[in-house]
Amino acid sequence: MSAAGGPGIPGYDEARARWEQDVAGDPGVAAERRNLSGVPVKALYGPEDVDPAAYLEQLGFPGQAPYTRGVHATMHRGRPWNPRLVVGLGTPADYNARMRELYRLGLTGLFVSPCNSHLRGYDADEVDRELLGVCGTLIDTSEDMERSLEGLPFDQESVSIGDTAPYTLTAMYLKVAADRGIPWHTLAGTTNQSDYLSHYAALHMFFRVALPGQKRLLVDHVEWMRRNVPRWNPLSVIGQHYQQAGATPAEAMGLALSAALQHSRDLMERGMAPDDFLPRLSFFFDASINFFEEVAKFRAGRRIWSRLVADRLGASDPRSQRMRFHAQTSGADLTRQQPLNNIARVAVQAMAGIFGGLQSLHTDSLDEAIGSPTVDAARVAVATQHILRHEAHLDDVIDPLAGSYYVEALTDAMEERIMAVVDAIEAEGGMAAALEAGTVQQMIGASSLAAQERIESGEQIVVGVNGFTVPEGDEEGASARPVLQVPAPERPDPAKIDAYLERLSAFRARQDRARVTAALDALARSFDDPGENTYGRVVDAIMNGATHGEVCRTVREAAGAGEPLVML
Amino acid sequence: MSEQGHPPTDEVRPPRVLVTKIGLDGHDRGSRLVARFLRDAGMEVIYTGPWQSIGAVSAAAAQEDVDVVGISSLAGDHLIVPKLMDALRQAGLGHVRVVVGGIIPEGEVAALLAAGVSKVVHPGATRAEIVELVSSLAADARLADAGPAAMAAAGASPAGAAAAPAVQP
């Protein structure tokens, strides 16, 4: 996009030459700097770095291709971002109490995050009890879902469910809606963790079904939800996992777009037209503290996706080209040392996401590096979003950093880096093939090591960790005051866990065994029939009173168990 | 090591370390990094990936004849480490040193040490600190395995659940 020579302004070249003379020999200006994605960063950007004539082609207006300036015409002026908080702790009653509290504080998006036992495909009574409710809410039955949502306005809000294959939480949500007489076609929400490719590559938080089985489950889920719950976003492509696992911002965006291409092709192979499902596709990204790099990542990602959708998937509906996204501030940037500093970090990360044009935002709690968030820390996280909107007025102007010589040049440079990743994955035959070959895991591992080495060498200062540390036991001066501490993480009350397990066993005792068995048998058989939709059978099993673990066991046996490719 | 009164680690065989995650969580960025650090420092590293059962870790520790087991915990999985310590002792692996790293709330460190864990490492530890800690623990484990006489000769503390943390960095 850069034009050769001066921009044709009288006196420009002379003024530029004077500046160059002024800074000549300055080590700060001369030092080579690169951002995490490897883009060289100059000390100064100017008109020569942008091409105003390329405005329509490269930027366009908000709500217009290539969507660099935002997916909606009004952006945050007309559609304020949706403040969400991932909440996952203890029992359904604990979750409910925390959500009611956060609602009072102005949170608008529900976000259910289940316990690790759930994510791995088990009921609570199948795993070590020490691990129950420690990192996510226990939800094994539709009654647990009912208790979690009691008194919350869940049918008027867009919910986001941290649901992995075989998507039983979404099925439980549908059962609760049906029990309350709420028609499914009115429900809006997102199956937030449905992208099994990112789980497989970066997080290993999924239940043990091999990739072909995961693919079948996801395609069936999207197809069934499209038919029965048309306002739902059944596929959320996750870039956040790659970046938290160590990928650079450009790599994380490139891998997410590659995964989105893979899922789209899988759905097209099933016979769905791209314009049938792409308008409901959403993304989930990390917002890290590398402010300008993140802003450029989001803007470049939107531009690339709109072009990939048109050029490689053949979509023509403008809604298919919009990269709508949720962002979560990066937990990996937060430190255990001097934990109150994390409030400042989260504010900067959130600003990067907001200026990047997000649709909804989770702000991490300041104690994220210490344990599961306490309610006090969660309050600060929600308030941070209100402060940025209502006090700092960050929603006043649409895409306010556009036109900055630096931001536009960086957006172009990030686009190049992101496309290099997309092209490399395409050359390997797509994301699934690249995962099976281990390429993606190696890319993430190398970048994670490089990031650690930058910290160890002191090239990257992390305040309180390798720089500006507060000496312990130093009795001299102001630093002798103890560092402000945050409360210890909450652990679930053992009595509440006991009560939960008792309720689960009472639920099992009440199950209509014949109905549950019939529904699970039908689910198992659906895997042998390519013409059947297995997700319809999952919903049916939950409607007939099966537990999460029962559904998962059935699917594991029918679809074939699998493990992630583990490599250093 | 030798400056600290320990005999040098076996010249022939470098420390053998099992790096693993027990329980349900899959966040493996930390364990992969630590495994690479130790391997690059010349140790023999057995890396299992996440989701290991306590029985599987204990069996692997025995089969691989490791000196140190490193457990990474980022989502509360360390709460079952005391069960692993019991399993190791029952398998006759009381000499194996166990180190836990990751997000471990301060209030939960004492219980891990009381269960026999040698050291808890928090985020922010450097490569050099981790390598030094593990090689020192490996030397302790070999002394403990060699028996009380060797330990007395080296001035080390006895092995077992009540042993104080072997290394004070």
Summarize the structure.
The complex is a heterodimer of chains A (568) and B (169). With 568 residues, chain A is of the alpha/beta class. Helices cover 48% and strands 6% of the residues of chain A.
Protein model, in words:
- The complex is a heterodimer of chains A (about 575) and B (about 170).
- Chain A is an alpha/beta fold and about 575 residues long.
- Helices cover about 50% and strands about 5% of the residues of chain A.
- Chain A contains 23 helices and eleven strands.
- In chain A, helix 8 (about 170-180) links the parallel strand 5 and strand 6.
- In chain A, helix 14 (about 290-310) crosses helix 17, helix 15 crosses helix 16 and helix 21 packs parallel to helix 23 (about 550-560).
- Chain A is globular.
- Residues about 475-480 of chain A have low confidence and may be disordered.
- In chain B, helix 2 crosses helix 3 (about 80-90).
- Mean pLDDT of chain B is about 85; it is low at about 1-5 and about 160-169.
- Chain B has one domain: Cobalamin-binding domain (Rossmann fold, 3-Layer(aba) Sandwich), CATH 3.40.50.
- The interface of A and B includes residues 131 and 465 of A.
